[in-house]
């Protein structure tokens, strides 16, 4: 029920095709207690390789995630709005790469909020 509520909440906010004009862009994400991004060995193609995981109370061994998701989660401090997170993730990228990364990061932010990794999006 909580995931359905969160999905509906985010869907209601998609009022503009330009992501920078969405209310979500000004929200301040706060991680749920016990969430952290770590670099740990993960299984890939039948062997352990270096990877990124999100460690949660329900998954203390960590759930594999992309380097971009790990970087974004590592920057969520409960005070920085999404717009500034996106700006910091885009640093050093050209305009096309930055736009692609931002679209992926916003999609990941939605998933992290719906699944409860992000406990709150203050301001929406």
Overview of the molecule:
- With 124 residues, this protein is an alpha+beta fold.
- It has four helices and five strands, in the order αββββαααβ.
- The longest helix is centred in the C-terminal third of the chain and has 20 residues, at 95-114.
- It starts with a helix and ends with a strand.
- The model has no long low-confidence stretch (mean pLDDT 87).
Major sheet, described briefly? 3 strands, antiparallel
Could you give the distance between the termini? 19 Å
Count every beta strand, where a strand is a DSSP E run of 2 or more residues.
Answer: 5
What is the rounded Rg? 15 Å
Low-confidence stretches: none
Anisotropy-based shape: globular
What does this entry show, briefly?
By secondary structure, this protein is α+β, with helices and mostly antiparallel strands.
List the keywords:
single chain; 124 residues; alpha+beta; three-stranded antiparallel beta sheet; two-stranded antiparallel ribbon; globular
What's the SSE blueprint?
Elements: H1 2-13, E1 28-31, E2 36-44, E3 47-56, E4 59-65, H2 67-75, H3 82-90, H4 95-114, E5 118-122
Antiparallel strand pairs: 1-5, 2-3, 3-4
